[in-house]
Every structure is written in C-alpha cells, then in structure tokens.
Amino acid sequence: MTASMSQCLLQMVRTDYTMSDYQSEIAPRWCAGCGDNAILAAMQRLCRDEQLPPEKTVCVSGIGCASRLPHYMNAYGFHGIHGRALPVAEGIKIRRPDLQVFVTTGDGDCCSIGAAHWIHAVRYNMNMTLLLHDNEVYGLTKKQASPTSPKGLKSNTTPFGATLNALNPLTVTLGITNVSFVAQAVDWIPDLLYDIVSKAYHHKGFSFIRILQRCPNFMEHRFDDYVRDPSSTRILTHGNGLRLKPELSRVYKNQQTHDPLDLAEALTLARLEDEIPVGILYNDPSVPCYDELRAGERPSTPALVETVLNEEFDKVGIWPATAAASGSGA
Amino acid sequence: MSQAQVVSDILPQETDVPSAAPASEPLRSALFARYQHLESLRYDYPLVLIEGQEAADTLIRPLTRIVDDVLKAAAPPDASGEAIRQQVLGLEDKIRRRVALGTEGRLSELWQTCAAELVRESGEDRFGPVDANLDKARHSLRVDGRVIGCDETTPVKLLTHAWRVKHDAKARRFRKTVESLILRLNDILKSDHMKSDEAHGPTALASSMASNDDGTIDFQALSEVLHRVRPEDRLPDDRLRRIKSALEVLQRQSFFGPGRASQSSPDRAAPYSYVFDSCSEALDAHRDRLPDVLEFTKALTVAELEVQNKYRPELHDPIFEHFDESELTADQLALLPSALICLRDGVTEIAEIARAYEALASGLPITIVIQTDDILGTTAAGPAPNSFGAGTARLAAMAMGLNNAFVFQATSADLYRMREALLRGNRYEGPALISIYSGATTTVPGVPAYILAAAATESRAFPSFSYDPAAGPDWAARFDLSHNPQPEVDWPEHRIEFEDREGQRQFETLRFTFADFAICDTRYVRFTHPRARSDWGGGMVPVPEWLALPDDSGMVQDPYVLGVDDEHRLMRVVVDAKITEASRRCNDAWRRLQELAGINNSHALRQLAQARREREEAARAAEPVAPAAAPQREETSAPAAASNGAGKTAPDASDGDAPWIETPRCTTCNECVQINKKMFAYNDNRQAYIADPDAGTYRQLVEAAESCQVSIIHPGKPRDPDEPNLTELLERAAPFN
Predict the structure, then answer these.
(1) Rounded distance between C-alpha atoms, residue B425 and residue B407, angstroms
(2) Using CB atoms, which residue from B251, B259, B709 is nearest to A214?
C-alpha cells in the first residue's frame, strides 16, 4: 500500500478541527432548554475528538425537531422526507463507504411513519450510527401523541389521554434479526451521552442509540424526577462497554455490570419500568454488515459498468459470437 | 520418514554370504529398504495444487487427504459405506499410478478418466452401482487443481503455483485500490462537469430526460433558469489537470491485467510478465520498468490526496517534482507484482546463482527459487561446472545473513508439511529465497525421488527450515527448525525390523546419518565396504558413535552404517574417511542451525553453567538467608476529593460566595447563555461556565439558576449590595446554593 507515503503527505496538511468547525452558520433554532442541544454538542464533540473531516461526514434526517440537526452541523447533510432518513442514509453508505454516516431521527419519525425502514435498517446492519431523539411527543407540530408517548398523555390528538401503552424502541430493536448495537442515553448526563455516542461510532455495523430527551415546552417535567434523583438511573457498565468516570460514579451509585453480549439480560433491562437503564444494552461486533457483504470484489468504475452492460447486450445481439471473437464487446 | 500406511512385507534379511569389497553397486540404507514401490502407498504425493477461493489458505493438499474428505462426506462410516469406500480408494490408487507414470492434469479430469476406466473394468454399464457411487463421491469433491507427482519438475510447478496464488491475490487488492481511486476521481470530475455550461445547456438537459421531447418542457428556458442559479465554484484548472493526468496513468497501468474491464479498452498494452529464468533478466526488467513504477506511484499518491481533497500545491508540488527511485518505499512496491525467478543448480549458470544474492539484497519484492537435484556433489575436490555441489545445502543458510529476506529450505518430501511456512512466504512482501532439493538425483538409481528427498532431510544433509523476518524481532520468532525429524538430537533415531538367520523378527536401533544417505550414491560406492554377518567384528562401530570417539581412537575402529543390497540382504557397510569427514561437516552445519533455533545454544549453555556455578558457590558460602519480607504496599493514593453532593466541586474554596456552574453536567441547552451571553459562556466542549460574574446582575444569575433544566447553576452571594430586591432574590437563590 502507498498508505505510508500518502499518510505522511496527509500529515503535512493535517487540520486540527475544533468544535466550532462543525457548527454551521445557522444557529440552532430549538427552544432554550431543549435536550436536542445536548445531542448536537455530543455529536460535535465526537467529530472533533475523532477529527472527522466535515467533507467526509454526512448527517441524514427525516422530519421533526430532531431532524433539524443536519442544518446545524457543518458537514454534508440530507434533510429527507418524513420517516425516510434511513433509506437515504443506506444509499449514501453503499455508494460512498468512505463517508461517516449519522442518522438523526425522532420518535415519531422513526417509530411511526419510518418503522418499516427502522426494522430493515437494523437487519441490514450497515455501518452507520442512528440517534433516536425520543422526547415522547411530536414537538415540531405542537404536541401530538407519538408512538412512545406515555399512556394517558393529553395532547392535541389525544385530548382525553393517549389510549395505548407506549412502544418500547429498545425491545423492538433488540428483537430484530442481525441487531448488533443497542444503547440508551439521556440528554441530561452529557458525559455519558458522549461516551455512548463514541462507542456507537466505533462499532462496526448499525448502532442504535435511543436518547431520552427533554422537551421543555410540550413534555415539561416529564423527566424531572429522573434528573433530580440519580438513583432512578441504572448505569450499565462493563469492561467491554461503558466505564464510568469516578466523579460520575460517586453520583450515579445505581450501577450494574452488564455484558453487552447478553441479549436475554439486555431485554430484561430494556423492559425496566421504574428505572432508566443507561449504557450499552447489546453489542455484538461479529454480525456481518450488508454494505460489506454486497460490496463487490471491484468498485463499479465507468469501464466496468460499460463492460458488464456490453456483455449483457451481447447476449441478445444478432451475432454475439462475432462480437465476442473480435474482443471489442461493442 | 514416509507417511506410508501400508508397507512391503519383505524384511531385510541377515545373511552369511560374504561380499566383495569395495562394493560395485550402491546399497540402500536399511531404513528405507522397505519402501521400494510408492505407487501402492498412500503418502503425501500426488499433491493437488489447489485453485480458486481456497487456494489462498490451502495452497496444496495431498490427494489422500482430499479423498479422505470425500469419503467422510459421501460414505457412511458403517458397513453400508464399505462399497463406495473401496471403489473410491481404488480410484485414488488408479490416479496415483497414472501420475507416477507421468500423466498430468487437473483432479476433476483425472477423476473422470479413471472413474470411466474403473467402470469399464468392473464390467458394469454406465449408471450401474460403481458409476453411481463414484459419481456420488465426485459431488463431494470440493476442490480442484493440477495434480503433480514427486519428480524433478515438482519444485518449480509447486512454487510457480504458490507465486500465482500470491499474484492473483495481489491483483485483486490492486484492482480494488486503483479502481476505487478511479471511481472517486471520476466522481470529482463528474460533479465539476455538472456545473459547466455544457451540462446546463438545453441539449444536455433534453438528453437527460427519458421521454421524447414532446414540447412539455422548454429546455431553453430551463437552461436559462439554471444558469442564473448555477454555483460558480468550479475546480481550479491546475487541480483539474492533476486529476485528469493521475486518472490517465491509473487507467493505463501495465502491472496487472485489467481483469474484466479489458474489453472496453482493447488497444491497451499487455501487462508485464513477472516470471523469469535468470536474475539478470529480472533486474534488467526492473530497471526498464522503473519509470513506469515511479509514474504510477506518483499518480496513486496524488490520487489518494486528491480524493481526500488534501492536495496542497505549495506543499506537495515540490515533493512530486523531485520524486525519484529513492522515494520508493517497500510499502509502495508491495502493491505492485512481485517477480518469480526459477533457477536450477547444475543447469543455470553458476554466476546467476551468485547474482541471486545481489537480487535478494536489493530488497525488491522477488521470490527466487533455487532447485537442487544433487546435494552430494562430485567426489573430486574442485567445484563441478555450474553447480555448487555440496554447497547447495548451505545456500539458504547464507541468505539468512541478509536479514531482510524470507528464507525457506526443504526437500520435495517436506513441502506439504511445510505448507504453513510457504503460506507465510507468500504473505511476505520483501525478497524471498526458496531452496528445494528435488530428490531426483541421477546418480542414485532405484530410489524414488520422494524417498531420497525424505532421506536428505532425515540425514541432516538438507534440513528443512524457514526464516521469516516479519514474524518478530528475534531469532526465536523468525527461525523455525521444528519440521525436521527429532530436531533436538544430532541424528534422528529409528527402530528397524529385520529377519535373522532363523527367520525370526528382530529389531535394531539405527541413527540415520549423512553416511546412510551417501552410501546410496553411485559416486560414493568406492568409499563403501559392505560386510555380511559373518564378517562383523568387534572393531566396528556405528558412524554416530565413531564420530563421537576421540581423534586417536578412531584409527582402530571401523565406522559402519546398515544397508541392504538388491536381494534384501542386511549388511554393515564400512565407510571411508571421505564419507565420515563429510558426515562430520554435515553434523557441524546442523549444530549451527540447532543453535540458531535455540537448541544447545552455546551462549545459553555457558551462561547456564556460570549461573549454576555461582549458585553452588553461594550455597556453599553461607547458610541461606530467610527472604526479606516484601515491603508492605502502602495505600498512597490520597482519597479522592470528598463527595460534595452531585459531583460538585467548588472552583475556589476560599471564595464560597462566588457564583459557579457544574460545567461537566451542562446539557448545552442555551437557557443561561440566552439570559446573558457575557456572564455565561461555553467552553471547548460547548458546556457552560461563568465567564464573568460581574457582566450581569444577581437577578440574571438567579433567573439562570431557576431556568437551568438540570439545576447546575449556583448563584452564590450578590456581588453588588445595592442591587434592588436583594432580599427576594436571596430567597429565590437559596435552593440553588
């Protein structure tokens, strides 16, 4: 490989990216107090710490408050259509495997209209990171119940309270074939949020992070009890998963060692009702990635595409034998 | 020695018939007296040169192993599988006999021909039970490739196959790398073209629509609209030129064939050939192709920088202007094909073999195969024409001195056992020397090449070893001698059976030495003196013991080895000084190899003896002192800062009244910075801290504390005692302090 020389020459023009290099010219238009800000900060911190070139980073989103994130990132972005962030992201990844793909989506975008894509994206296990901003409500459209809204939530579409129990995105994801990385984070513990996003980024495959996120306008006080009482948050640690910093460890004493390869325990934890499990629930690095399975031996250069097309045309040509003998393939 | 599972029933016999001395015909060593006809034995040969996907990991596999796999899959282990087992083993036997007669071909072809023959011989019709069984077995055949026997052509065939496998793997990697770059460069050019006048012209727009132009769309108008919004950031000319020129070089390369895309450019030159018969040819070719290599490497590096948009003309232009041979690194050359040079001792000019060292020392990625058919050499003192003679067994050992070359030495009989080392050699990116003794020595009649090759390893005349510079930093990691029989001793020990004069089965222990190997050679016959049982006397000692005798006592003892003649009579063969001296040299060379492998290493032994002496002296000098108690490890780390609520650590303990924020817990929610941008600011991680407590009012501090979603702002005490409504504010601030 010429990597060494190219690496040397690349070192000559190494740019030290700072957080502000990832901030676009548009200031975030999320409400003050919104948890989305913390997720954006974690994303930008990750990009800086990994020194991801902005031109090699893509944020793809659907529709919703969360889906505004690509606007605020100085990177390539695709603000897609409702629920369809994942197909767009998959297209980008298969055509340009050299790009880092992040998908930001909300509970309505992902778990309602985009549910089918969500299931198949987990099964495809393509190398990308999905951040599910779960504030349990449609916020952009001023409070309608979403699939993850708690039962009894009074909203514009459920004035007498939401009828059904909330969908649990964690158990759903853990149940899908080929699942390879599932984690849960909360926006109000920024260090842990960053650590989890970083673990997800380093995982090869589809990383699914559900981030519980406060909406100060439409779900006011929803998570107040958890924010105030650290013991209601159960931190999952493991040698192969999260390692808690001492200062956090002193505050969040409710900890459990959880092997990220233990799917049964992950499902039990995902079903916890009184406590919020935070950490990596499941991580199996051995699951094959669709983008690698389908990557051809050789990339589709114009020359190869032309050859293959000509071969196909020759099959139905009038004198295929002559064409093959002449070697022109025309 | 041999993997034989079936041996001849004829045992060497003791006899009283005296024989003339010296011998007129060479004898065979008693050890391999029983392995005369290999065709009926299931041993390592014929070998199948594995093709296809498995080739990279398997390289070669004996026919017997492949047949075993087939039987495991196709024949039930119980009695019901017996018929198919017998038939397939019969087929294997047929293939082996054909290959021994010189038939060549791929396994699938040989299988088919021999199966048809077996069906004919069985007297059955096609689709009868035999045909059906063999057909069923054929479906379990998972691999295919050329089948080779063990003869003088084996080393070149096998090593060329190994090189081909490496070359194909390289070609795949090369095409993937280069074509990804071509694709990315094309992408850049295409995206630039999309901004051009041409791409926005009405014609281009019309042709980009699938349907016929029925007038629904006014492309002229569309083109004008697009012209107004067209982005102006076109690629600079120099970058465009650079990309196009790199692209052209990458597409034109002649190192590897273009693979499947060949049809689209039928006029391109044929790729370079990398298989040579001499080192001069290879080195000349390298020199001739150097400009192309440089141009390609330059284009590749430029392309890698361009696709990352990291080419900076002011920095990189000077580097590429002066890019010459000295800039080429081993990493860069590793992407290009490696050369294969096949030399043959006795055939290739001797100067060429000497040049091999020049080629190896150059560090270029070349594999040199030196095949030797004769390792004893003439009995005359001077060197033979075009041959290193006895020196060929040392060629590989000499190459280890180069340090950067992968070195492999083995006989044909050991190639399968040494396949892991061959695979390592295939993965090695630098120069490699492969030295093989074929066993096809013309002066040893009646001994199959495989047996003679095995005997060469057994007698330490041609030991098997590998030296892999990539395996680690020291000899222990790099050098492997373990494939020799009983590598820890001077001569490997075997128990042989023979029949005594009463017809009883007897056993004797035999240490196989260089002398046992040498007595088979017609050129050495005159230095051997066979003695039948009746002539055996007390003054005779086996060669290994004779070599260990003190110099002066050797004169009165006769060194002998055990041999058998054509009629299977067991003899003691007394050997002359010519052979014992050669044995001594051979043993000396073997011991040096052993030392390199850490066996009886003289430095280590000396150190060990020294250490032992010192320990004994120390033990004698004084009573052993009770070991001092290990110093108690003290807990020195100060207890971590006392927990202060939710991870709070006041920034300045002396000033408890100052306002402060638990920055690590900040969720970047913008509440506080929207209240006062000067008072609250974000740090490098976009988390808030108090930039200037005097930049705002105490009221703002209290309001920020109240609105903070995670309650991490602590307003402290008011700094301005005259601020209005302080009493109320202090009350509101109390829960946050």
Answers:
(1) 8
(2) B709
Q: How far is residue B441's CA from residue B373's CA, in Å, rounded to a whole number?
A: 5
φ, ψ of residue A304 in degrees (nearest 5): -70, -45
Which residues of chain B are within 8 Å of residue A312 when distances are taken between CB atoms?
A: none
Q: Which long-range contacts (CB under 8 A, 24 or more apart) does A247-252 make?
A: A247/B647, A247/B649, A247/B664, A248/A189, A248/A191, A248/A192, A248/B647, A250/B640, A250/B643, A250/B647, A251/B646, A251/B647, A252/A189
Q: Least CA distance to B169: which residue of chain A? A: A297
Q: Is residue A81 part of a domain?
A: yes
DSSP state, residue B603: H
CB pairs under 8 A between A and B: 157
pLDDT of residue A139: 95
**Which CB contacts under 8 angstroms, 24+ apart, belong to B414-418?**
B414/B453, B414/B454, B414/B457, B414/B464, B414/B483, B415/B44, B415/B47, B415/B60, B415/B154, B415/B155, B415/B158, B416/B44, B416/B47, B416/B60, B416/B61, B416/B62, B417/B44, B417/B464, B417/B483, B418/B464, B418/B466, B418/B483
Q: How far is B405 from chain A (nearest CA, A)?
A: 19
CATH of the domain at A216: 3.40.50.970
Question: Does pLDDT of B648 surpass 60?
Answer: no
> In this model, does residue B16 exceed pLDDT 80?
no
Decide the pairing of beta strands A128-134 and A206-212: parallel
For residue A119, give its domain range. 16-288
Q: Does residue A320 lie in a domain region?
A: no
| pLDDT-wise least confident of A22-26, B29-33, B273-277, B729-733 | B29-33
Structurally, chain A folds into a number of domains equal to 1
Mutate to test the interface with B, among A12, A13, A74 (most CBs of B within 10 A): A13
Instruction: Inform me whether the C-beta atom of residue B293 falls under 8 Å from chain A C-beta atoms.
Output: no
In a domain, residue A1? The reply is: no
Best mutation target among B709, B711, B712, B736 (most A Cβ atoms within 10 Å) is B709
Q: Which of A53-62, B534-543, B623-632 has the lowest mean pLDDT?
A: B623-632
Which of A40, A230, A301 faces B183 most closely, judged by CB atoms? A301
pLDDT score recorded for residue A89: 97
| Overall average pLDDT of the B398-412 stretch | 89
**Mean pLDDT, residues B123-127 taken together:** 74
CA dist B338 and B274 (Å) reads 7
The mean pLDDT value of chain B amounts to: 82
**Which residue of chain A comes nearest to B707, CA vs CA?**
A33
The CA angle A285-A291-A292, to the nearest 5 degrees, is 65
Residue B308 to residue A10, Cβ atoms within 8 A: yes
Q: Hey, are the CB atoms on A5 and B258 less than 8 Å from each other?
A: no
In a 3-state reduction of DSSP, which class is residue B337? coil
Nearest chain B Cα distance for residue A93, angstroms: 14
The reported pTM is 0.74
Q: CA nearest A72: which of A27, A33, A118?
A: A27
Distance from CA of B635 to the nearest CA of A (A): 18
* Alpha-carbon gap, residue A327 to B5, rounded angstroms: 53
Q: Is residue A77 situated within a structural domain?
A: yes
- B182, B187, B256, B263: best to mutate for the A interface, most A CBs within 10 A: B263
Contact check, Cβ <8 Å, A302/B260: no
Whether residue B667 and residue A188 make contact (CB cut-off 8 A), yes or no, is yes
